[in-house]
Amino acid sequence: MKKRFGLGLALFGIAVWFAGTNPARAAGPLTVTGAGATFPYPLYSKWFYEYSNSHPGVNFNYQSIGSGGGIRQITAGTVDFGASDAPMTDEEMAKLPGPILHIPTAIGAVAVVYHLGGVGSGLRLTPDALAEIFLGKITKWNDPKIASHNPGAKLAGSDIVLVHRSDGSGTTDIFTNYLNTVSAEWKEKVGRGKSVNWPVGLGGKGNEGVSGVVKQTPGAIGYVELAYATQNRMAMAALRNREGHFVLPSLESTSEAAAGAAKTMPADFRVSLVDAPGKDSYPVCGLTWLLVYRDQRDEAKGKALVSFLAWAMHDGQKRNAPLLYAPIPKTVVEKVDIALKQIRYKGKSLY
Amino acid sequence: MKVGANIKDFLFEKTTALFALCVLGLTLLLFALLIRESLPAIRKFGVTFVTNSTWDPVLEEFAALPFLYGTLVSSFLAILIAVPLGVGSAIFINEFAPGWLKTPISFLAELLAAIPSVIYGLWGIFVLVPILRDNFMKPVSRALGWIPLFQGPVYGPSMLAAGVLLAIMVVPFILSVSREVLATVPQVQKEAVLSLGGTHWEMIRIVIGQHCIPGIFGATILGLGRALGETMAVTMVIGNRPDIVLSLFQPGYSMAAVIANEFTEATGDLYLSALVEIGLVLFLLTIVVNLAAKWILTRMVPGRAGR
After folding, report:
1. CA distance B134 to B152
2. CATH number of B50-300: 1.10.3720.10, 2.60.40.1120, 3.30.300.180, 3.40.50.360?
3. Minimal Cα–Cα distance from A256 to chain B, Å?
4. pLDDT tens digits, one per residue of A276-286
5. ipTM value
């Protein structure tokens, strides 16, 4: 008797559960889920908020768990889209159930920041000097390799205290990618990644950890996201780009870099923007991407996702600059539009 | 009536047994999962994982010795500072403090225990590290820089900063457990020592020697456990540099800190597995520390009683 009652209760429960969820799902708002990069999170939340307001019926749930987590989740298929500050490697893409598209959404720049009493923004650094500082070969601020390009600056013979990110991060990936590109020695000894085996220096956790140490330690140098450096009014270095000009990081010089790279933009957008051509382009920047499967499994969600992406590439881009993200240049947006048309459900384009 | 009571007793006993089993099961599950997930790294690196010191995510070469060293040194440093502080203030509060001071001190100590560790970390970066650097590390480095413990340039974030911050976080635990232990001493015994002409110091020394050492040792182990596993606060002040250096003024790294720092962005299978293996090493370390503490305690108690 007792057992039967229990069984009945269980069945009743299941029935209620079905009755509760199914119709609700059909009638309620559609929720598109995503996970990944923390760097573009402020921009994405603004986009999701505005898009949901102008397009009732579509909600977004984005978890900023880090690019690595985003790639893992989209690979496992537990989210509808992923987000990453570093493009997926060929090895990672081989593990995917189907082809994936990298949709570039914004450009981030990494600023080299320092703390030198009496020296404001604009200290000039050559790629060589920067690489040698981070390799631990230049240890004093008055080293001729720094001083010769900064005749006006009062550089004392103080020790350089180097600060890098200790947590795995897309910022580190862009920065080490740059050093990897400009210095053969860096490439051989350290390499590129979200975490690397730093030859020298202290590790600070997050942008706040790095800037905390830089701000308090006379003689310190480090790197943080441009937005973070700007908001905290930190002294930023002007880096020499490949055309020989010293350029300060800014939204304009970042967009310049993207425009410079646009001509050679590959069809899958997995491109590095470091050391990009262009007279005014800042050399340490990178794209951030949304990761979307070409073949969508759910028609309604796929359609919502594609129309959101189309909105993000046009209307959404206007929100980038106020939040200190450089917008994607027009020439690249045209290419992304073509890519978005490839997203399909059972062979039918969702655009 | 009686039968009903028996059933209630039976149910109560079995339910509590079930809860106890849950705790056991959870620990075993945790252990099994850590082993399963770290298998690729164990197979690849074997023993060298705890004897080598290269941590290179780019070349996928992983070894945990610097992290193990950092965890042990920062935690023991913390205990070294926190035990005298905690036990000393417990004695003061219980034995000497006037009534109006007792409550505020113990209230503040309990408040310290309730502060989230990330707050400690931020306070560490912005307040503790500059104070330590300018008022302690720099003068000491100038005067005693030739001693290996204080060698090298002074940055601020360092093993010492981590040890001091951990000590501050651990003191409330040692303080409140020590107070409980001191409170268990029968008043008659204290009065007996005093009535024989003993001073306050003699009274405390004899009473603590006889009664309280095992309890205070327990408090120390509790504090050590907290220090070993502390993550957020440590990573913010330790400097996150996987080097093994004797100098306390140089940056170091701890096991919990490297997991927190690198887990979210780790993509390679071997990389993830190596991070989990660090978790496994940390897990084993805490077990070893606890077992050693139990062992020392059982040896210490009869020894004390025989005095």
Report:
1. 15
2. 1.10.3720.10
3. 29
4. 998 999 999 99
5. 0.81
